[in-house]
Amino acid sequence: MPKELRNSLDIKADDELEFFLGDDQFMIKKRITACEFCKQTHYVMNFKGHRICRECIEKMVEMLKEDGYML
User: Fold this and answer.
1) What is the pTM of this model?
2) Would you call 17 exposed, middle or buried from its count of C-beta atoms within 10 A (0-12, 13-18, 19+)?
3) CA 69 to chain CA mean position, Å
4) What is the distance between the terminal CA atoms of the chain, rounded to a whole angstrom?
5) Nearest 5 degrees, angle CA 60-CA 62-CA 66?
6) Residue partners of 27: CB distance under 8 A and separation at least 6
7) Average confidence (pLDDT) over 31-58
8) Do the Cβ atoms of 11 and 1 come closer than 8 Å?
């Protein structure tokens, strides 16, 4: 990938990229590896296209329990 394009897309040498191939398109997207809520990068997992860390999942579960949801 040309340096000018990497610079314009803020892609660094150690960034992870995702590649998508459609009917008549080829797309490259920078993979976001941080939690979407707290930006932490440890113990991050993908849930239905969203990156969420274990700590935020645990906080969500606690909130659900406090609101009376049975888990």
Assistant:
1) 0.54
2) exposed
3) 27
4) 47
5) 115
6) 19, 20, 21
7) 90
8) yes
